[in-house]
User: What shape does this take?
Amino acid sequence: MLFRLVTATSTALHLHAIRWWREYSALIAVVVVIGVPAYIFFLAPPRAFPIDMFVHVDQGATLSNIATELAETGIIRSPLVFELFVRGIGGSRTIDAGTYRFDEPLSVISIARRLMRGDSGIPPVRVTFPEGLSVREMSEVAYDAVSQEFATAFFKEAKPYEGFLFPDTYLISTADTPAGLVAHMRQVFAAHTAMLEPGVQSSGRTLDEIIIMASLVEREANTDADRRIVAGILWDRLDLDMALQVDAVFGYILEKSAYAPTLEDLKINSPYNTYLYRGLPPTPIGNPGLGAIMAALEPTKTPYLYYLTGTDGTMYYARTFAEHQANRAKYLK
Assistant: This one.
């Protein structure tokens, strides 16, 4: 009896399956016939997908504008399908601004997910800002490493913080903005100089004065020992109300790197001209490293009031102007 029941049940299921197949086989065929081409047309990458294509998404760009640009560059087939997919899986999420690289054909689904994650497909650029560079010179580094657009915006954002941008190596991704880089450089500066606050307070100088002095000695001397000696000389000249007569300021005034001033340059009417104007320049002339900042904060006390760098790269010091003149005749041949 049990055998007959199982056999009857199996037969009924088999007949049901046959009826289901007869009823729905046509529908399945229609889905296959329509669905596969639909996938190929709407979701699959275009046949002429542009390899190594870069697409820039502007800040605040609408989803419609992004979809249109992707279609115009041949990365997707249908802007409408792209928009529907992004809205369907992303809800209120937006696409991150930045530049995206597509190095292989991708489906609409993969492209949408990458853009929504902010996955640019471009490795970050490693940018090194050497110690002592001015904001103008840092902008030139950014121009070479990133782009002219980035460098121009960086200069505008960074200029008010001359001297307070820590020179270091930074990783810049396509999602990073010039303003974001400047903010990060200021944060790194603050982190490195926070421990110096007690020394600044006990020095009798302000942090601004220390950084301005550091920017001078960074350019005037090449070793930490010489920077400390030069800092001591310049602080003494300042206390004696003597003109600092720092040559490095002329590169800043004339926007020229590694510039040796002429006698005519010494007459330039600029508040940064430390031959004409006594005291420190109005602002730093570059962004000093920690060694130069420490030199300005903890200078070496000496009896010297003059110094020069000889043609052999060695620094020579003098107590009097007469000794200094003798050093010029001897070491600047």
The longest strand covers residues 53-57. The radius of gyration is 34 Å. Residues 2-43 form the longest helix (42 residues).
